[in-house]
Amino acid sequence: MEKIPKNHPRYLSLTTRAKISEAMKKGIVHETGLIAHGRGEAYDYLIGEQTISPAEDAEKVAAALLLLAERPVISLNGNVVALSAKDCIHLGESIPAKLEVNLFHRSENRIRRIIEELEKLGADNVLGNNADEKIPGLNHDRGICDKDGIYSSDVILVPLEDGDRCKALRKMGKKVIVIDLNPISRSSRTANVTIVDNITRAIPNIERWARKLKNDNISHLKDLVSEWDNTKMLKDVLNLISKRLNSLF
Ligand code: PTJ
User: Fold this and answer.
1) For 105-115, what is each residue's pLDDT tens digit?
2) What secondary structure letter does DSSP report for 150?
3) For the CA of 105, the nearest atom of ligand 1
4) For the CA of 39, the nearest atom of ligand 1
5) At a CB cut-off of 8 Å and minimum separation 6, what does 189 contact?
6) Closest residue by Cα to residue 177 from 107, 73, 25
């Protein structure tokens, strides 16, 4: 990886870019993943590259929803694995939730490379290779999924998702948690719980909440979920961004 001086003011951003770029060279990230990353960076700027309070609240509710689930699944794509593979493995272990590789730009080669990468980092039983079902209403490869994973899940965490799949998953009756720095994307507006935060901060935050909530009684977790108003939270995010921008000059 190219050497970035530690005292560079944009060190974190530059090293993250380098990770995405390296993962593209390894065939993990699709070339358009670089564009998606750039869009994410722009929105991260708007929220000050930090976890804002509506995101922290969403991370708590996401943890509660995952803990309440009977068949929780974490869906992984190229960008997610490039940036947060270890964090997703740890989250999967602590819920516990299955991991499934589900790609927008699907190719057997990428699926294999991504699963190999996850296994190298300690994951086992990663689904996605022998996908034998289809998400109804998605007549594209991104609908291909595993019968024992995404297809039969009741709660699914889909970071950096596309709007159509999110909508189709909701149509199947699943509770969908999205991580997306863009608060006005279709996925953000379609999900049950939207986390407007960088995946690199969001996954460890969900895990921290999961550890805190794990021994709480079920009725408390159910209250957290039933009281959640996703539309209000998205409006709060937009207000926060606009206040923040107005206060800059
Ligand atoms: O690996 P594949 O083939 O499944 O493809 C993955 C990408 C991400 C290329 C594909 O799903 C795609 O094109 O996604 P979109 O439609 O560009 O949506 C990605 C969303 O994630 C955008 O709204 C970005 O703002 C957001 N995003 C990008 N980077 C991050 C992010 N959100 C949170 N954390 C990030 N680091």
Assistant:
1) 999 999 999 99
2) G
3) 3
4) 25
5) 231, 234
6) 73
